[in-house]
Amino acid sequence: MEQEKRGQWASNFGFLMAAIGSAIGLGNIWGFPYKMGANGGFIFLIIYLALVSFVGFATMLGELALGRKYGMGVIGTYRKISEKYTWIGWLGWLSGFFILAFYSVLGGFTVRYFFGFLLEMFSSGAGFGGMDSGAFFGSYIINAPVVLLYHAIFMGATIIIVMGGISGGIEKFSAIAMPTLFVMVIIVVIRSVTLEGSFVGLEFMFKPDIEAIKEIGLMRVLKTAAGQMFFSLSLGMGCMITYGSYLSKNENLEKNAMIIPIADTTFACLSALAVLPAVGAFIYQGVEGVSFGAGPGLLFVTLHRVFSVGMGGFMGNFFGAFFYFLVFIAAVTSSISLLEVCTAYFIDKRVAKGLSPDRKKITLIMGIIIFLLGFLPAMDGLGSGRAGGAMIDIPAVIFGMKEVRVAFDCWLDFYDMISEGVFMPLGAMLMSLIIGWKLKTTLIKEEVESTPGYQIRAYNFWDICFKFIVPLAMFFVLLGQLDDFFGLGIF
Ligand code: TRP
Question: Whole-angstrom Cα distance, residue 73 to residue 237?
Answer without folding.
Answer: 11
